[in-house]
Amino acid sequence: MASVMHHLVSRGLEAVQQHQENPEQTFGPFKVPTWGFVLVGLTTVLYFAISLGVRYTYGELIGTLAMIEDPSTTMIIRTSETDAPLPSAVESEKGPLLEQEILLVKSKPITAKFRTTIAHLRAHGGFLSRFRGAHVLAAYYLAYHLMCSFLFRFVPHTLGYRAIITVAASTILCRLNATWTHIVISEASEKRFFQRVPARTSFRKLAGPTFLNAVAKQLVFLGLVEMFNVFGLQPYAADLSKLGELNDAERLNVWFHSFIVLTTAILAGVFVIIPTHVALKRVQASLLPEEDESIVPFDRTFNGKVVPEILGGSGRVGMAEAWKSFDWNGRVRLFKVYAKVAAMQGVLFMLFTIVLAGEVRIILGDQLDKMVVAATRGAR
Question: Which of 283, 291, 234, 238 is nearest to 258 (CA)?
């Protein structure tokens, strides 16, 4: 996303510089004024900025908090005198018997609603708390892309080799990724983020889960690409107008195969990628230093599965136990978070499309009307 934003901003600045000398340029069959390029460019940059903010705050940050939150349970003991008749000897020596009623009350999860989660974040860091850790994640992705770009030069340009490089880069940077998780789930600290990077000895605890999560993502991606090619969908993805060259049966076949690929992608995300990602985040959370207090309740022992190193344990939860300890209520809560984020992104995209269409109509004016009339006549 960062590279996309950099490309858009660079192209926008180049366009402004090119059009300063000539206030009206030709864009295809249209003559577009400089202010039109600037307006559309600024709108596009604004859309990507808002979309990136929504994805980070609600998808990454709140999503991670939902993955590690374990709602706390409170025990309430009610005591009352019993009305049952007692032997006189017992009553005289010990007094009336007391009845005790024990109630276990499970608090409502903080991440159950976006509103309560945002309010909770503000209470722990003010308005900018919704962007907590953003600089660390940016540093991680920068290091990740630089490492991948460098290593890509030494391997053949095939998807298989690129998958190996991306898995290796993710595994090498596992400590930096864990740093972001620790900063997101814990109280604010006066330490710099590089001072909160887990110790080198933690690499062997994080490398395995990170490797498995990265491999799962790449296997799903490569599998979907293979399905795409086997079904022969690539030409139509590159140019949708080619669908018009097909008859009804062929067009229906393309849509059916596209539906199969989309369904497979969703199922793979739900049953492969999300479980490994959740397990990774919970493993990272289990390595949160004792002096760092989490901002959401979670069981540091993961139902007693985490044994401290001083007692002969690994000091972290296993990947399988990390997923198993994430109960069904938590899983449903996480899927709701992802569904809400997808809905927000969809609404945001529709608004952007409507605004952009309005801007194009204002910029082109009569030129657009003439094009529509000519296209209508051609269709007839």
Answer: 234
The CA-CA-CA angle for residues 339, 344, 347, to 5°, reads 125
Q: Which amino acid would we find at residue 18?
A: Q
> Six-digit token pair at 268?
């793979």
As a whole number of angstroms, the distance between CA 282 and CA 276 comes to 10
| Strand-pair category, 30-33 with 73-81 | unpaired
Q: Which amino acid is at 371?
A: M
Please state, in angstroms and as integers, the Cα–Cα distance from residue 146 to each residue in 6, 137, 152, following that order.
14, 14, 10
Report the pLDDT value the prediction gives residue 43, as an integer from 0 to 100: 95
Residue 28: the pLDDT is 54
Q: What residues have CB less than 8 Å from 257, skipping those under 6 apart? A: 231, 232, 233
Better pLDDT: 322 or 101: 322
Phi, psi of 292 (to 5 degrees): -95, 125
Q: What are the tens digits of pLDDT across the range 135-154?
A: 999 999 999 999 999 999 99
* pLDDT value of position 239: 79
**Orientation of helix 203-230 relative to helix 174-185, angle to 10°:** 100
* CA distances in angstroms from 317 to 8, 178, 314, 328, listed in the order given: 42, 14, 8, 19
Q: Is residue 48 packed enough to be buried (19+ CB in 10 Å), middle (13-18) or exposed (0-12)?
A: middle
Contact in structure between 184 and 133 (CB atoms under 8 Å): yes
Residue found under tokens 């080198």: 200
Tally of CA atoms within 13 A in the half-sphere of 239 that contains its CB: 6
Q: Is 98 helix (H, G, I), strand (E, B) or coil?
A: strand
Provide the token pair at 237: 């993805």
pLDDT in tens, 153-168: 999 989 999 999 999 9
Q: How far apart are CA 258 and CA 301, in angstroms?
A: 44
Residue 179 has a pLDDT of 97
